[in-house]
Design brief:
Elements: E1 2-10, H1 23-38, E2 44-50, E3 53-60, H2 67-86, E4 111-118, E5 123-131, H3 139-147, H4 154-157, E6 165-171, E7 176-181, H5 186-193, E8 199-206, E9 212-216, H6 221-225, E10 235-239, H7 247-251, E11 259-262, E12 268-271, E13 273-274, E14 290-299, E15 302-308, H8 316-330, H9 350-356
The chain binds 1,3-dihydroxyacetonephosphate (13P) (2 copies) and magnesium ion (2 copies).
One magnesium ion binds near residues 52, 94 and 230.
Length: about 375
């Protein structure tokens, strides 16, 4: 059975500030998707949040980039924005960069990760959602899951994984893409994906079966809007078990709270802290950045779940570590490398300040 799993998300208003989504907004989105399920457009859905981002997880048989599915998501966000405005939530409609829908939500603000699959006899999938960071945040975890045998022992001992995986990498500034094969091209791959502000892993494929293993959202809001409009808090879908990494191998990379871009005003580096879904409420200095993991078993398109995968106690130490790293980074205040590098500051006051003081810069020896 051909099935499409679509995760479409947007920040349509924060409660309070940028720290969470309001329960009424989630309920409203649920109503909209219930209707779509009744008409048969959706097989199933789950509405959730990560920080101030509203997440629509949907299964259907319309394929990827389908106009009806994207319009459903768009209309759900537009309706939610009306409610967000009535509640005067913070940044109501923040991620809706256009007034009119034109066939596809890509390039209009919302983040999208979709995969069309042939559902396996047992199909465990993990939907990762992050707040206060951007698309490149998945680069290191995806590399570890699919190319690092110190993380994924299956690469060595599972015969159907031993051929390795192919990584589709997008240059988010030039809008180009390249596919690199692991393990033989890992050095070439890492030179790019080690620069996550510019290069983001869009998808990963099994080289043995050519099937899709993972897909992420790679939208960059500031590059779409031409100005800073909040971070493009990303999502990522990963299939697990059998020809793919085991669930534990998929989660293991997040035991390191690696440094990502985002946090306060989208302008700082900070540790990505894996948390339970109810704990995705970035508060300290609007952070630190969060990642949640909703696990599902798909059953003829039905979403059996979610299981809140990072609620597990085995991630407690990572959370403590993340908070220590957060403290250490915060002590740097407005200094790099806590503050993002110059190039990433171009959407802030930096150009205005530089212009204002241009005449006072004189030649130095
Ligand atoms: P089970 O023997 O519990 O199915 O586990 C197999 C496995 O792959 C664990 O990572
Ligand atoms: P969001 O991108 O999650 O809306 O956060 C924006 C921000 O400025 C946080 O300080
Ligand atoms: Mg926000
Ligand atoms: Mg957000």
């Amino acid at each position: 059975m051909k099935l499409t799993l679509s995760v479409i998300k947007a920040d349509i208003g924060g409660y309070v500030g940028h720290s969470a989504s309001h329960p009424d907004i989630l309920a409203k989105a649920g109503e909209s998707l219930t209707k779509a399920k009744k008409t048969g457009l959706l097989i199933d859905y789950h509405v959730t949040q990560c920080g101030d981002d509203l997440q629509l997880i949907m299964t259907h048989q319309q394929g990827e980039e389908n106009e009806r599915i994207h319009k459903l998501a768009w209309d759900t966000f537009v309706e939610g924005t009306k409610l967000a405005k009535a509640l005067k939530l913070y940044g109501a409609g923040q991620d809706l960069l256009s007034d009119a829908f034109s066939g596809n939500v890509k390039g209009m603000g919302p983040g999208v990760a979709e995969m069309e699959i042939e559902e396996r006899p047992s199909e465990p999938v993990i939907v990762f959602m992050a707040d206060k960071t951007s698309a490149g945040a998945w680069n290191m975890p995806l590399y570890k899951m699919f190319a690092d045998p110190f993380n994924t022992i299956g690469l060595i001992i599972a015969p159907n994984m031993h051929t390795g995986f192919a990584f589709e990498v997008h240059d988010v500034k030039e809008h180009t893409k390249i596919t690199l094969n692991t393990p033989e091209e890992i050095y070439d791959l890492l030179i790019f994906i080690g620069a996550p502000s510019r290069y983001a892993v869009k998808a990963v494929y099994s080289r043995e079966t050519k099937e899709i293993a993972a897909v992420s959202s790679t939208q960059r809001l500031s590059l779409i809007a031409g100005r800073y409009v909040g971070k493009d808090d990303p999502v990522c879908i990963v299939r697990a078990q059998s020809q793919f990494p085991a669930v534990g191998e998929v989660l293991e990379p997040f035991s390191l709270p690696h440094l990502v871009e985002g946090w306060m005003r989208g302008s700082h580096h900070g540790p990505l802290m894996p948390v339970a879904i109810d704990d995705a409420t970035p508060t300290r200095f609007d952070g630190p950045p969060r990642v949640t993991a909703a696990g599902f078993q798909l059953a003829d398109g039905k979403l059996i779940g979610p299981r809140d995968m990072f609620a597990d106690k085995s991630f407690d130490r990572t959370r403590q570590w993340a908070n220590e790293v957060a403290e250490y980074m915060r002590r740097h205040g407005p200094f790099e490398p806590h503050r993002l590098p110059l190039e990433e500051m171009e959407y802030t006051t930096m150009p205005q300040v530089a212009k204002k003081l241009a005449k006072r810069f004189t030649k130095a020896d």
